[in-house]
Amino acid sequence: MAPAKTSKTSVASETSVALTTMWKSYSQNTSDRLKLVDAFLVFIMLSGIVQFAYCVLVTNFPFNAFLAGFASCIGQFVLTASLRAQVNPENRSEFNDVSPERAFADFTLGSIVLHFFVYNFLG
């Protein structure tokens, strides 16, 4: 039994070290703009999780409202992830023709169109 406990402890220790290293690297190497976009991505993801949990646990009575809200979360997440990929300096070689201002303009227009469709879906 002791070796199993040791292996669980070592796996937990390795996981802890890996997560700590990843967090330090993220904190040091990621610009503040990308951290802001990442925080917005986390907010959108949590919002979608809360909506889904509410639908499953409480009610889904206005089902079209749930679908509109959840689709809005998914669509906005995809648009924001695309914005993050385009403004990330490490991806500059893949997006030569797209300036950060153009990427933000595309993000803004896509968000307006997405929310126009979501609003119309509500009825």
Summarize the biggest pleated sheet: none
Computed structural class: mainly alpha
What is the count of DSSP helices, taking H or I runs of 4+ residues? Answer: 4
Q: State the helical fraction.
A: over 70%
Describe the global form: flat
- From the N-terminal CA to the C-terminal CA, the straight-line distance is 61 Å
Low-confidence stretches: none
Can you offer a commentary on this structure?
- The protein is 83% helix and 0% strand.
- The mean pLDDT is 90.
- It has helices at 2-29, 32-57, 63-87, 100-122.
- It is mainly α.
- It is built from four helices and no strands.
- Helix 2 (32-57) runs antiparallel to helix 3 and helix 3 runs antiparallel to helix 4 (100-122).
- The radius of gyration is 20 Å and the shape is flat.
- The termini are far apart.
List the helices and strands and how they pair.
Elements: H1 2-29, H2 32-57, H3 63-87, H4 100-122
Helix pairs in contact: 2-3, 3-4
Summarize it.
The chain is mostly helical. It contains four helices and no strands. 83% of the residues lie in helices and 0% in strands.
What keyword list fits this structure?
mainly alpha; single chain; flat; 4 helices; 123 residues
